[in-house]
């Protein structure tokens, strides 16, 4: 009983400390799930693997324990170009933060190391390659360390496009500092990638925390490319994003340059970003995107990881991403502040052909190529489904959604479909009767009645389903299988050469108890834009703009992005609550003790002037 009571007491003490830090430093009233569990685990000295969507509050999961525990929290991040902004954001809150990377000269670097040794830092951001240097390891051995946070942990996966070789060496943290808690964090990782993170970072004993992948504020829309894709993009932007920050992803470097130039001709502030640009140009364009408003970045996948700009109102894809993981990660950069945002994509046959060629010509192993091919098929399946996009997206990550979301194109607008029940039963029967051991190509050969060497080798020409699918061509059958995978009726076993497996939910279809409608292969048609205003109707636009001007001036004075001063959510709370004094202002979301002292007076002045003007206008109207 004593041990149990002691454990409860320790938990309560840890969480009261964490709650106090959340309110006094960060200005938030309560944790989101499962932040409190994660934070408690790290404060208690446990390791953790955290999978949480972009905008879900991953950073707090290591920032608060670093402040609650003795010593300095070491944050390993591959994002050298963003470390300065991350540190600036922490310093705004009164947190003693610095970074060490190759951008610093020797004098500044030595000063940071001195602060670390003397205990004058709460957080230190470092690049992964620094941790392999014996000199830095020796420095850490002389330091009181609160925790190690491995951000963007999916970079350890050799299956992903964000792979960083230096991440493979981070298992040395456990070897050199076995008693220091480690927390690995990522926004995107399927089961295979999670297993790889666990193995390569030596996190066998880590607690796993998987938050919901759902981003209900994001509206998903996917359409086929028309003859003029640029016109489609322009319609999308002019329908609701004339003055918004956003990202447009393209498959090639050349296309990013062309689209950015063309958008500038259309009156938008658009900047290209890709690995072929000079480093200083990339840094400048990224800085402008973060610190200016209504800037559009036109980029390849080289852009976006770690971007914490909260007011990105849209992410557009001019070409189909090659995996669902990439799509989810890239679209997740929209609406980090929880406000309504759009994820818009157009795709076509040429996208699929190019992506398949890229997979086939890669230097990866055959196993890698097969895995990438199946990931590509799953992405295509997401494009072609007729049911809720969000439901399929969450299903891919193993998170069932009981009802349709009502906030994607397939939920809001009817899809041209055909009754695929008979074809689906044939497809599922082919999977079942061949022992769930074969991939799509072989199954289509059987259904179409082929008698090639592989069909004959396994005697599959004697199966009752041989030749029953001649009414559909290869392309149509591929669409059937892609949609079944995309909707979770079939799964792909990447370890067994892409063999298709029946999922439990397909039983009613096989038994004839359920019908299914499939998306019809058809030409694209213009679709109406679905947008919602990000500003509530009861907010005074004059006050809103005055608060934004105040925020912009303060940000320019300090050389930081406006959202580092306050997020839009905080400004909206100011517009609604109209605080008259410091005590009331301190209750605004995102206002901690440091920001209250630093910015309270300036914003209260703006609100006070607004109230005086409003009272004056009201009196003038009365006198009339």
Mean pLDDT: 87
Number of structurally distinct domains: 4
Radius of gyration: 27 Å
Tally of separate helices? 26
CATH-level-4 superfamily name of the largest domain: P-loop containing nucleotide triphosphate hydrolases
Structural class: alpha/beta
Q: Which percent bin holds the helix content?
A: 40-55%
Uncertain spans, ≥5 residues at pLDDT below 50?
6-10, 523-529
Most strands sheet: 7 strands, parallel
How far the N terminus sits from the C terminus, by CA atoms, comes to 76 Å
CATH topology of the largest domain: Rossmann fold
Spatial sequence of strands, sheet with the most strands? 3-4-2-5-6-1-7
What proportion of the residues form beta strands (DSSP E)? 5-15%
CATH architecture of the largest domain: 3-Layer(aba) Sandwich
CATH class of the largest domain equals Alpha Beta
Can you put this structure into words, describing what you see?
The chain has 624 residues and is α/β, with parallel strands linked by helices. The chain has 4 domains: 209 residues, Rossmann fold (3-Layer(aba) Sandwich), CATH 3.40.50; 194 residues, P-loop containing nucleotide triphosphate hydrolases (Rossmann fold, 3-Layer(aba) Sandwich), CATH 3.40.50.300; 103 residues, Winged helix-like DNA-binding domain superfamily/Winged helix DNA-binding domain (Arc Repressor Mutant, subunit A); 83 residues, DNA polymerase, domain 1. 46% of the residues lie in helices and 13% in strands. A 7-stranded parallel sheet has the order 3-4-2-5-6-1-7, sandwiched between helices. It has a 6-stranded parallel sheet with strand order 8-13-12-9-11-10, sandwiched between helices. Helix 2 runs parallel beside helix 3 and helix 22 runs antiparallel to helix 26. The chain is globular and about 80 Å long.
């Amino acid at each position: 009983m004593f041990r149990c009571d002691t454990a409860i007491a320790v938990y309560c003490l840890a969480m009261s400390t964490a709650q106090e830090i959340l309110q006094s430093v960060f200005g938030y009233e309560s944790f989101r799930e499962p932040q409190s569990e994660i934070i408690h685990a790290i404060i208690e000295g446990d390791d953790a693997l955290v999978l949480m969507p972009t905008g879900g509050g991953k950073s707090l999961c290591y920032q608060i324990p670093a402040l609650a525990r003795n010593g300095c929290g070491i944050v390993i991040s591959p994002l050298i170009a963003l470390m300065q902004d991350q540190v600036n954001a922490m310093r705004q809150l009164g947190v003693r933060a610095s970074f060490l990377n190759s951008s610093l000269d020797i004098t500044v670097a030595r000063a940071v190391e001195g602060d670390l040794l003397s205990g004058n830092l709460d957080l230190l951001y470092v690049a992964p390659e620094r941790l392999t240097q014996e000199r830095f390891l020796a420095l850490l051995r002389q330091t009181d360390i609160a925790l190690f946070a491995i951000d963007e942990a999916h970079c350890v996966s050799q299956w992903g496009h964000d792979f960083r070789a230096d991440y493979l060496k981070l298992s040395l943290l456990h070897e050199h500092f076995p008693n220091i808690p480690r927390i690995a964090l990522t926004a995107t990782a399927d089961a295979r990638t999670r297993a790889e993170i666990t193995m390569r970072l030596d996190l066998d004993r880590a607690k796993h925390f998987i938050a919901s992948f759902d981003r209900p504020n994001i509206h998903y829309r996917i359409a086929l490319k028309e003859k003029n894709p640029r016109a489609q993009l322009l319609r999308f932007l002019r329908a609701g994003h004339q003055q918004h920050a956003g990202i447009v992803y393209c498959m090639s470097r050349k296309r990013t340059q062309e689209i950015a130039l063309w958008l500038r001709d259309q009156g938008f502030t658009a900047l290209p970003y890709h690995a072929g640009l000079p480093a200083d140009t990339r840094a400048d364009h990224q800085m402008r995107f973060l610190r200016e408003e209504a800037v559009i970045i036109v980029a390849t996948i080289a852009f976006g990881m770690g971007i914490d700009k909260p007011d990105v109102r849209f992410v557009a894809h001019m070409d189909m991403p090659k995996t669902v993981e990439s799509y989810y990660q890239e679209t997740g950069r929209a609406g980090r502040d929880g406000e309504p945002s759009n994820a818009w994509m157009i795709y076509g046959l040429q996208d699929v052909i190019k992506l398949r060629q890229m997979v086939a010509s890669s230097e990866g192993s055959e196993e890698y190529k097969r895995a990438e091919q199946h990931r590509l098929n799953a992405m295509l399946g997401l494009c072609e489904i007729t049911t809720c996009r969000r439901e399929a997206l969450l299903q891919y990550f193993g998170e069932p959604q009981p009802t349709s979301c009502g906030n994607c194109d397939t939920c809001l607008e009817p899809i041209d479909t055909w009754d695929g029940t008979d074809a689906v039963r044939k497809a599922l029967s082919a999977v079942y009767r061949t022992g769930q051991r074969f991939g799509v190509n072989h199954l289509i050969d059987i259904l179409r009645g082929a008698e090639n060497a592989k069909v004959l080798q396994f005697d599959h020409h004697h199966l009752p389903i041989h030749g029953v699918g001649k009414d559909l061509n290869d392309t149509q059958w591929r669409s059937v299988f892609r949609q079944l995978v995309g909707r979770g009726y079939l799964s792909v076993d990447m370890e067994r050469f892409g063999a298709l497996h029946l999922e439990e939910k397909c039983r009613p279809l096989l038994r004839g108890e359920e019908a299914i409608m499939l998306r019809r292969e058809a030409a694209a048609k213009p679709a109406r834009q679905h947008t919602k205003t990000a500003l509530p109707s009861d907010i005074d636009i004059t006050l809103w703009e005055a608060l934004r001007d105040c925020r912009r001036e303060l940000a320019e004075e300090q050389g930081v992005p406006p959202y580092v001063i306050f997020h839009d959510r905080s400004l909206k709370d100011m517009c609604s609550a109209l605080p008259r004094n410091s005590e009331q202002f301190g209750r605004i979301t995102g206002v901690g003790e440091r920001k209250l002292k630093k910015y309270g007076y300036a914003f209260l002045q703006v609100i006070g002037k607004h109230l005086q003007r409003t009272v004056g206008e009201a009196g003038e109207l009365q006198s009339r």
